[in-house]
């Protein structure tokens, strides 16, 4: 259940959630078709830039800059589970790109007895071979939640406002909680990821409001 929950912040599922969010926001009553179309276009562009932009920045610049290994990799190396040729986390990360590191884990993890891993957790560990700091899942979820909660509060009413302002942020908090639980991030990774996501989300809200009001102001 933990892996399935954390996977809702991956590109495949978050894309579908974002589409549902856009539809929810623009389907409200009281706006014309032109305004609706402008909002849909602006939301699509801003979400794409905010979510894809921060993911690329995080994965290719920020994480390599700090170069902090994931806690599960540190644990595996210290237990000797990565083999004598990889005595520490630094050696593991120096062994090649993400796919090369995944191959190592595919070979080693099925042989492990301690820690005992479920098939889903093992597959998640094999996939997550990038650096740790900050948490990309948390940043993406918090960015999305900040944007949707703010726009939901401003634009929606009734149950739609309650879902966007309460349920979606609660989902983002749950995503953040799963990362240390799965041992692929530390608390510091999650805290910084949350702060980064809030900043990205606030900028995204400002961009959406500015663009919509300039392109299709309400008379």
Structural class, by secondary structure, is mainly alpha
The percent of residues in helical segments reads over 70%
The Cα radius of gyration reads: 20 Å
* Uncertain ranges: none
Protein model, in words:
This protein is mostly helical. It contains ten helices and no strands. The chain has helices at 2-6, 11-26, 33-66, 71-78, 89-93, 98-108, 119-127, 136-155, 158-181, 187-215. The longest helix is centred in the first third of the chain and has 34 residues, at 33-66. 34% of the residues are buried. The model has no long low-confidence stretch (mean pLDDT 94).
Fold topology:
Elements: H1 2-6, H2 11-26, H3 33-66, H4 71-78, H5 89-93, H6 98-108, H7 119-127, H8 136-155, H9 158-181, H10 187-215
Gist of the model:
The chain has 219 residues and is mainly alpha-helical.
Descriptive labels:
mainly alpha, 219 residues
């Amino acid at each position: 259940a933990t892996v399935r929950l954390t996977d809702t912040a991956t590109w495949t599922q978050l894309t579908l959630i974002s589409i549902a969010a856009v539809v929810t926001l623009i389907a409200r009553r009281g706006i014309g078709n032109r305004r609706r179309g402008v909002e849909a276009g602006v939301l699509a562009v801003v979400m794409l830039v905010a979510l894809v932009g921060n993911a690329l920045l995080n994965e290719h610049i920020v994480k390599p800059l700090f170069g902090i290994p994931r806690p599960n990799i540190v644990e595996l190396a210290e237990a000797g589970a990565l083999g004598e040729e990889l005595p520490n986390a630094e050696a593991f990360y120096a062994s090649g790109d993400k796919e090369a590191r995944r191959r190592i884990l595919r070979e080693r993890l099925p042989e492990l007895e301690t820690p005992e891993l479920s098939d889903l957790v093992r597959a998640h560990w094999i996939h997550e071979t990038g650096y740790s700091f900050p948490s990309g899942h948390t940043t993406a979820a918090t960015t999305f939640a900040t944007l949707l909660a703010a726009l939901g509060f401003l634009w929606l009413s009734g149950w739609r406002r309650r879902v966007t302002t309460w349920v979606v942020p609660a989902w983002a908090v749950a995503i953040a909680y799963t990362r240390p639980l799965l041992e692929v991030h530390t608390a510091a990774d999650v805290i910084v990821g949350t702060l980064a996501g809030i900043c990205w989300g606030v900028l995204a809200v400002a961009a959406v409001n500015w663009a919509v009001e300039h392109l299709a102001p309400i008379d």
